[in-house]
Design brief:
580 residues, alpha/beta, Rossmann fold, two-stranded antiparallel ribbon, 31 helices, 10% strand
């Protein structure tokens, strides 16, 4: 076959999308013409289509050496350099395109994208306008300009006018994801992915399916991304994250690390898998590799701290938690872990724990967990109980029920047995995820759940137990209790302290609630763990002062904490003539 015929046949295969056959012929041509610029450029485009951008760059650079005035090759080079995150080099390639062919609107648009991603929005806007000067209806530049301004309405107008432009649908998906409108984000991401088989589109559709709790659908898109780019580390990591079988997931993480040994996300996610399997020494090694790659990751420091605490290395764990907190002081989970670790240390090293807590409060006087732990260590009451409870249980919500199972928490069942069936309206104060509601709900009653934590209420809502749920401070809510309602509060008083004002608001409604007891204290005290305990007689006295005359109680074990039973009492208080 002649040289020209071979090239024509290869080009035909390339145009038909048969890249494998085209590549074979291109390589045969290079055996006799190793510096052929057109063939080198075409091989670069094939590598680019596979996501092999480093290989593509090599081909484009060799092609440019023989055809240094071809603006198209510079444009292709810029595309792959951009994909590799080499933004300065990509910008140089696009500037070369403009020098050779000043009316190349695509080069201005690509420069705008580089300026946008590197944070220079003024220059990005300027470049998009330059592109639009050559073509005022250029959809990509119009979309980029709207995306730069976070203008969803304008983007939707562009998309409805050009539904074939998957890029606009992709940008809409990203903006709706930022707004936490996951349904709309997923809708646009699927449109982009189905319309145009690009790795980034498939990945976004898969990630949004995961966020919408559709792991099987997510895996379909991750597999498609992997077909587009067999070396897609992101696709492998996401597939592993969506995979229920731990052995299969582990193989995928290892495959990702074989492709990219220094990939931070691969090390981090693999470490989490090992940690969850209780393979602590292996997890520790993977976390340490992740820290080496990205020492400024608050997440890795936090996860390492959890692991060190689990291994009994409390001082090291505390240092890691403080590192996470310093990197991201607005994350309440990090503050909570510091407080919990200080509580553990306090049992054996009270003076050291108290000194660390004091320094923490001095540096961050507005942090609610630092305030609480210092008050607890000093055995002082605090006026921030409501704010503390809100932040605590918002953080606690995702793992709350599993934790309750782990500590043998059967208080809701015991309360239900003690108070019996309840007719009419029940107000469940501090309802949390609905553990008490599950026990006391009957066809003949109506339950209203009250809690200050939005995240806990969302968990309760998903159970369809409550007739109504309200996010409000329970003391505020009790200013306007419905008449003749029965009020409950399971494991709530431990976060309040002085409960007499609350009892005064609830009286004369019948009220069932629990307390943790310590009859050595005169009334109530804040323990180092941040919860209040009460003298049982003190509770009886304030119920009487409020006007309750029919008071019964039952001692019980509330939960197991650090291997020890936590003792408590369930109270049922009614008015003199109240038989409900």
């Amino acid at each position: 076959m002649s040289y020209d015929n071979m090239l024509q046949k290869a080009l035909k295969f390339h145009q038909q999308g048969n890249f494998g056959e085209a590549e074979k012929l291109y390589r045969q041509i290079l055996q006799t013409a190793p510096d052929h610029p057109q063939v080198l450029n075409l091989l670069g485009l094939i590598a680019q289509s596979k996501g092999l951008h480093q290989e593509a760059v090599s081909y484009f650079e060799k092609s440019i050496l023989k055809d240094f005035n071809n603006f198209e090759i510079y444009f292709n080079l810029g595309w792959s350099l951009f994909a590799l995150g080499k933004y300065n080099e990509a910008a140089n390639a696009y500037h070369k395109v403009i020098k050779l062919k000043p009316d190349t609107k695509e080069a201005y648009n690509s420069l705008g994208e580089i300026y946008a991603i590197t944070g220079n929005h003024r220059k990005a806007e300027e470049m998009f306008h330059c592109a639009l000067n050559f073509d005022p209806s250029y959809p990509e530049a119009l979309s980029n300009l709207a995306y730069l301004k976070n203008d969803i309405n304008e983007l939707e107008k562009i998309y409805h006018k050009h539904p074939e432009h998957s890029f606009t649908a992709y940008q809409l998906a990203l903006l709706f994801q930022k707004k936490a409108d996951l349904n709309k984000a997923l809708d646009y991401a699927v449109k982009a992915a189905q319309n145009t088989p690009i790795e980034s589109y498939q990945l976004l559709a898969g990630e949004l399916h995961l966020q919408n709790h559709h792991p099987e659908s997510a895996k379909v898109y991750f597999c498609e991304a992997l077909q587009i780019n067999p070396k897609s580390v992101t696709a492998l990591i996401n597939l592993a994250n969506a995979e229920p079988d731990a052995k299969t997931a582990e193989k995928m993480y290892k495959q990702a690390l074989d492709i990219s040994p220094r990939d931070f996300d691969a090390h981090l996610n693999y470490a989490v898998l090992l940690h969850n399997q209780n393979r602590l020494s292996e997890a520790l090694e993977e976390y340490r590799k992740a820290v080496t790659i990205n020492p400024d990751s608050s997440e890795v420091s936090h996860n390492l701290g959890i692991l060190q605490r689990q291994m009994g290395e409390f001082t090291q764990a505390l240092g890691l938690f403080f590192n996470s907190f310093s990197l991201n002081p607005n994350n309440p989970q990090y503050a909570l872990d510091i407080a919990e670790t200080l509580t553990i240390m306090y049992a054996e090293q009270p003076q050291q724990a108290q000194q660390v807590a004091q320094r923490w409060l001095e540096q961050y006087p507005d942090n609610i967990f630092a305030q609480r732990i210092n008050a607890a260590f000093e055995n002082k009451t605090t006026d921030t109980d409501s704010k503390y409870s809100q932040q605590l249980f918002d953080v606690f919500a995702p793992t709350y029920e599993q934790t309750m199972q782990d500590i043998n928490y059967i208080l809701p069942l015991k309360m239900s047995e003690f108070i019996g069936d309840i007719l009419g309206t029940i107000i469940d104060l501090g309802c949390g995820t609905g553990l008490l509601g599950e026990q006391i709900k009957r066809p003949h009653n109506h339950i209203i759940g009250i809690d200050i934590s939005e995240q806990m209420l969302q968990k309760a809502k998903n159970k369809n137990i409550y007739d109504r749920l309200e996010q409000v401070d329970i003391i505020e809510y009790c200013n306007h209790l419905p008449p003749q309602a029965f009020v409950t509060a399971a494991d709530v008083m431990g976060y309040i302290g002085n409960i007499e004002p609350l009892l005064q608001k609830i009286y004369p409604h019948p009220f069932a609630f629990s307390i943790a007891t310590d009859n050595k204290c005169s009334n109530y005290t804040l323990l180092p763990n941040g919860r209040y305990v009460y003298n049982k007689q003190y509770i009886h006295d304030i119920l009487t002062r409020c006007g309750y005359q029919n008071i019964s109680s039952k001692d019980c074990v509330l939960r197991i904490e650090n291997g020890q039973d936590v003792l408590g009492t369930i109270f049922l208080a009614k008015g003199k003539n109240d038989e409900s």
